[in-house]
Fold:
Amino acid sequence: MGKEHKMSQRIKNPLRELQSISRDVLQIGYKKLPSNLKRVCFISYYQRAQLNERSAYSVLRTAELAKRLGYDIYALYNTTTEEYIQYLKHFVTRTSEFLWIYANALPIGSQEETGIPTKDGIEPPVLLYDILNCKKSEKILLIVDGIERKNNWHFRDNALKGEKVLALASYPDPEQDELLLEQTDENQENIFAFQLTKYFLQDTSVTAQVLATKLDEVMRDVGQRVWIESNPSSFASETGLI
Structure:
């Protein structure tokens, strides 16, 4: 298992590897996307966001885990806001069992805005939540790597009403010195993505609340915390998150 954890960091072109295990929605085209979907991992990757080339390893690591768990993987690269809304809404309304949404965001601790980056700018959480309110799938897991301030992402403040929706994200620890903040390790691996997949692989039946607690303990050492929120709140403690 340790060998599998290190697999993506040895790949010279992580985006090419990601493309080999996922389907590019822009190449498929909106009208040709499948409609009867059961378990989907939808990944949005914006090259100029987050950690530039290094963030490609975090999306690849997520895709590798999703593939191992039997998800259909769809990726959206360097998108406009209009494209992001269109394709995300398709999967939100066409996936019946479980939709896993992963987005690489911006370098935490270095900007005021927080949200999903596209070619058109930084889109606020409320735009994302408006789409999630249209959900047809039984469960939705949202992972954002990472966010600046968790208060901007609270479900109630952004009118998220859909049930069995859960979000996880890393954010700067406000009680620690900014100099302690690190997002990548000595291998240029994204720490949050690495630890997240590590714990999932150790126990795929782990609840989100237990997972978040374990992640939070590790991320404190690098100046980060882990935000978790679910609707209803009891959903975070249900067995078998993914």
